[in-house]
Amino acid sequence: MDSTAKRRTETVEDVVLRYSCRGMHILRTYMDAKFCRKAALKLLSLEKGNILLTTGFYVDGHAETDGPPGTMALAVALRKLGYHPVIVTDKYCRGFFEMENLEVKYMNIDDGRNAYENLLEQYRPAALISIERCGRNEEKDYANMRGASIKSRTARVDLMFEKAAEMNIPTFGIGDGGNEIGMGNLKEVIRAKLSLVPCEVEVDTLVISTVSNWGAYALAAYMQQIKKIRLLPKFKEIKKYLEAIVKMGSVDGVTKQQTLSVDGFPLEVEKEILDALNRTALLAEEEEERKAG
């Protein structure tokens, strides 16, 4: 198969699972074939209103570079579609989202269930979305990719997702390892196939990807394709955003270095994925128009 034909058969889901090295290709066999498209369609079916998005994974005193760029991109896309995004995070992401004029609620590390119930009461959200946010695992701890506890450095935003489920508020989760909010949907598989202690917090709709940012970009790509509105950021926009948050202290979650890389992948890979998503969304749109015509 030549490269052009390969591009035409590659789906958004294929793109975001490139370079899978932490078992997401294994989890894919337990997901719907078009799990990203399914999530995008569910987002687009929501009534216009507030959408609460959370991110910020603690790494050595900082928030890692995976999560905030995807959250920013998805929040801006939702705003263009008429929703009001609100970022819910903790102090390690301070300043990351105000530069995009997004509303932010900072939660304290020791905030309990009442604080999150009050937040839901205040905003009455149409949905909650988590992008690379640590959730409580089956040992009632919050652990990083190395299995070390970060409970004392992680605001318990997952409590908001559990309360939202009780209130029938739709919830979405994007993860890339097994310890993120939403991975509870596949906890049995993660425990058996990936040999780690999984997050136990579930969501209505789960998206997996090699890097969580890529899953968020995938939702923007599909919504762009469906709504015919430019929603997916170009690489230069993401690079500029990464430069800004790294200057604020954000670090690569794998290397722990304050560099323009994400989960150990150099900036060139981020460009490759964004370019491929832009191309794949465009090709899919052209194919739909061809069939309709």
Automatic annotation (TrEMBL):
Residues 23-277 form the D-glutamate cyclase-like C-terminal domain. GO terms for biological process: glutamate metabolic process. This is D-glutamate cyclase-like C-terminal domain-containing protein. One of its GO terms (molecular function) is D-glutamate cyclase activity. InterPro entries: GLUCM_C. Pfam families: GLUCM-like_C.
